[in-house]
Here is the input.
Amino acid sequence: MSGMSFPALITFGAYLALMVFIGIYCYRSTNTLGDFILGGRRLNSTTAALSAHASDSSGWLLLGLPGWAYAAGLDAVWMIFGLAVGIYLSWKFLAARLRVYTEQANDALTISAFFEYRFEDRTRVLRIFSAIIILIFYTLYVSSGLVAGGLLFGEVFGVEFTTAVALSVAVVVVYTFIGGFLAVSYTDVVQGLLMVFALVVVPLIAVFAVGGFSNLVEGIEAREPTLLALGSQTSFDAVSGTWSAGGTFGLIAIVSSMAWGLGYFGQPHILARFMGIRSPEQIPAARRIGMTWVLVSMFGALLVGLAGIVYFETPLDDPEKVFLALTGAVMNPWIGGIMLAAVLAAIMSTADSQLLVTSSALTEDIYRALLNRNASQNQLVWIGRALIVVVALIAFILALQGGSVLGLVGYAWAGFGAAFGPLILISLYWKGVTRNGALVGMLSGAIAVVAWKQMGTPFGLYEMVPAFFLSGILVFAVSKITKASLPSEQAITHVGSSDAVRAS
Here is the structure.
């Protein structure tokens, strides 16, 4: 698909220009650090929902998930189901409480600041270690987006991988640097609408091109019947271009796939949307909008992968390029440019949020908290902008090492889900969490993810599962042991109250 047509180039370029324009427009509303990090807590339900899930989806939605469906067939449904459940539960049981409590917690702008207030941590170790975890895992996460961007720019423009990744960095940094949280959120709305449009149009046209759904099913069965059998594992050999039955897709594989949903409770870039929504009363509408977007998009991505199995007589050498390949094959150049822009939207909508959260943690939780407590608001905003560039450069270096988009995302997703998810959930519902319980739980979750991954994921179990539950158990157990050091009633007065529950 290299050698992009003129119509596609025009539509692709128009999309990029629109993103930069939104960044410039939002520049006028970014005057304080609170504006830069949370947009002044003034997102409406539509913006919060689309921004949360566009920023969540990244390149895995249009590259990784279709690639998995292309290689493994319907077994990708297990991850979709787990993600959908996790999304619903996070909106239902976490969003309203976090919105209320972070504002009451001395108007905490970051998760790290919330931890410090919630547990009255005067040593600031919670704030420092949570910021370090954010820096480590988000740098990996951003690098996954840059790898996806490299695949896109390389496929579209025919440039080599390093140049393609550099283009990805430049595009994302420009409007995030200029407009901060509002620019990220408003561009995410455009990007989210573009992504769901692409994930409806491309698979339906591809199904029509293969002769309809009955021909699609027959064609997949001709390739390998287990592609359509839930519970029967299928493997794909890119060298020979063949699919083969790989045995039973057993309980561990199902649990590992569904466990992706646990990650939603601990992703700082998604939690920031909960914290930045205008009021808890906006959350039920946001949940409905978000769930609709997620279900349509993920099942569209599944259909892209399944359609690619039948459409291409010669199997693809890289399953994660199935969306790009289908777009080039079945779309006219003008619409094709829009579809390719949707892939870039998926990449940018996550990378921008992650750069902003990482910059926010370094600015608010390290620079202001430890180095310069008297810094002016203007100085803090510019420090935040400078750190966006620094983190992007580090992620760029890591991205040049390559790797699977879905694999890199999975590692970072587990890191945040296990380090922060259990702690945030428990701390919003139980007054008995202590500073030491929080610290041990958070660190054990992050360390367990890394250790499990380094051991080669024993039993084939996704590292999220053991790390998440270990973290939750230790938060509870260590808090019980150190209950003499409970935070004061002032810090925990709203924990477990019904105000936020009624709003959700």
About this structure: The CA atoms of residues 52 and 270 lie 5 Å apart. The first helix runs from residue 6 to 27.
